[in-house]
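Sequence in, structure out. Go.
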Amino acid sequence: MLNIRNAKTGESEILTNIAVRSEAYWGYDSSYMEKFQSIYKVTEELMDLALLQVHKPRNSI
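Output:
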């Protein structure tokens, strides 16, 4: 069973890094990834506007 919670204020940088690594998984070239990183950011404002949820591993605080 998955344990899911709402993203917390202060996690925007972590969520942005996860998104960038996830996109890079597909083998895009460095030019594309640089553009992606410059455009795509999870911001506190986005977190206020959208329901962002994260997986919370068992046995974590």
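Check: The radius of gyration is 13 Å. The longest strand covers residues 4-6.
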